[in-house]
Design brief:
about 260 residues; alpha/beta; three-stranded parallel sheet; 9 helices; 10 strands
Length: about 260
Amino acid sequence: MNPDSLVIAGKAYRSRLLVGTGKYKDFAQTRAAIDASGAEIVTVAIRRTNIGQEPGQPSLLEVLPPAQFTILPNTAGCYTADDAVRTLRLARELLDGHALVKLEVLGDPQTLFPNMPETLKAAATLVKEGFQVMVYCADDPIQARMLEDIGCVAIMPLASLIGSGMGILNPWNLKLIIEQSKVPVLVDAGVGTASDAAIAMELGCDGVLMNTAIAGAQDPVLMAGAMKKAVEAGREAYRAGRMPKKYYAATPSSPGGGLIGHGSK
């Protein structure tokens, strides 16, 4: 195993970029963008995408077979804990007992901000039923800790509102969540362009999940490749350890001693 692999629920992944499968013009573009992204985990909205619940209709699994990708069913479009739990029970049946899921319980259709009381309720039920829960949540360190204590395998705070492309609005809260968490922390929602993904990784996030930033680009396949590079560069910069910021004095890159014409006195 690569010593810098992303490990979720005991399984190692090379890529730290997770991508959604919605909003593309067709399944062919979906596959091309995901190939360009290098993602190994792809998330699927069970209430919006056919993975077998509509017999006779084209299935996403024909384009993204589970033998090649880890399918991450999600509860996009659910506004109560009960709806989310029912949706993921269906997903487990459709995917032959697949346990890794992404939980999101939304608060309202305008902002798509998470409803945290319902999210906590759903997470507790799903963990008890043996699901491995990756959970979309507010950037609240206290509630993030509560979700981890329940048994969620990854915490996924928003950077900004879903589909907004506003980037990371509160890096300080994100840092607090990263520093306290013993499970992977992945930014979910709000990434707009490659620099947003790089910043998330430089802050110490374990990964980034995105959909609209790629699917909504003028050239989704090209953007997918840019996001792959950004996540990799951000991770390398984090591991390398950036130089300290110095606000009041310049420090030359080269030592001043020994310059021609500057002999010792």
